[in-house]
């Protein structure tokens, strides 16, 4: 027989002695047996743990307490990635944000493993100023394997929450130019927010040079009222717009929709200026 309880977010199983022999008693009067951080029993015993408590616990367990200057918080609007770790060299500030929309309905183990994934990034930032553009090089993979062996977790380089990411992308645009027949996206842009493709997109300049088509919105969430309607001086403009939307939706299906919904997981350096210590580095998972 055994008793199960939680201590600081860790599942503890303690064997109860049910033998009469002193010799057998001595065999079972041992230290409590620690289980995996992602033990299935925790899904019901502690389904919604406090992320700050987990952070403090894991900081001591796996990172020697060096992440005291790092914050962790939920992001209510982040829907393309499960977690983000950003670090500003000059001030030594480190921030981990976890996607509430993606993780709130996922199993507890996904939250734990995503948090540990981002904490590895933070640890490498703080200790060795690791600025590997890919973000998941040899150092990252060493600590990933180390923690997986110690904690019974399955931390990975990229998440697989593709269905959840796709579910939040309810605003669709399609280009009416030549790129609608080109792989891999066939002119489709799908987003979780009502932000039309434009000059702020890193690929916009290349699109203008290679295609030059216009993006027309063809889908939005049911009952959505956020977009402002503008009156047109052309009495037939409304009918033409509706007709064009239907044509773009039905002309061809998108065989590479899964590609457009997946996230590459690569990090990018943002806000760079002179000197590497002024960079703001952001890694996504």
From TrEMBL:
Region (Disordered): 222-262
Biological process terms in GO annotation: DNA damage response
Gene Ontology, cellular component aspect: nucleus
SMART domains, alphabetized: SprT (SM00731)
The keyword Ligase is assigned to this record: no
Predominant localisation class: nucleus
Pfam families: SprT-like, SPRTN_ZBD
Amino acid composition bias (Polar residues), ranges on this chain: 232-242
MF-aspect GO terms: metalloendopeptidase activity; polyubiquitin modification-dependent protein binding; single-stranded DNA binding
Positions with biased composition (Low complexity): 253-262
Domain SprT-like, chain residue ranges per copy: 49-218
Protein's cellular compartments: Nucleus
Superkingdom per UniProt: Eukaryota
Keywords: Nucleus
The protein, known as: SprT-like domain-containing protein
Source organism of the structure: Syphacia muris
């Amino acid at each position: 027989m055994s008793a199960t309880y939680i201590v600081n977010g860790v599942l503890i199983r303690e064997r109860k002695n049910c033998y009469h022999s002193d010799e057998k008693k001595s065999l079972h009067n041992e230290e409590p047996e620690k289980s995996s951080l992602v033990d299935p029993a925790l899904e019901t015993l502690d389904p919604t743990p406090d992320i700050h408590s987990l952070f403090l616990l894991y900081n001591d367990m796996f990172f020697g307490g060096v992440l005291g200057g790092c914050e962790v918080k939920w992001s209510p609007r982040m829907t393309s990635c499960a977690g983000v770790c950003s670090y500003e060299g000059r001030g030594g500030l480190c921030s981990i944000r976890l996607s509430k929309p993606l993780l709130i309905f996922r199993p507890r183990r996904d939250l734990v493993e995503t948090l540990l994934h981002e904490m590895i990034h933070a640890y490498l930032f703080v200790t060795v100023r690791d600025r590997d553009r890919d973000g998941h090089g040899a150092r990252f993979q060493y600590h990933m394997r180390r923690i997986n062996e110690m904690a019974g977790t399955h931390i990975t380089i990229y998440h697989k929450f593709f269905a959840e990411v796709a579910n939040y992308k309810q605003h669709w645009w399609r280009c009416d130019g030549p790129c609608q027949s080109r792989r891999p996206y066939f002119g489709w842009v799908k987003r979780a927010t009502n932000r039309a493709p434009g000059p702020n997109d890193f690929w916009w300049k290349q699109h203008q040079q290679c295609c030059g088509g216009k993006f027309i919105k063809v889908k939005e969430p049911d009952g959505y009222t956020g977009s402002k309607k503008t009156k047109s001086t052309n009495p037939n403009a409304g009918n033409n717009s509706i007709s064009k939307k239907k044509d773009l939706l039905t002309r061809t299906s998108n065989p590479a929709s899964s590609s457009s919904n997946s996230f590459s997981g690569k990090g990018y350096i943002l806000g760079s200026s002179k000197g590497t210590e002024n960079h703001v580095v952001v890694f996504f998972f």
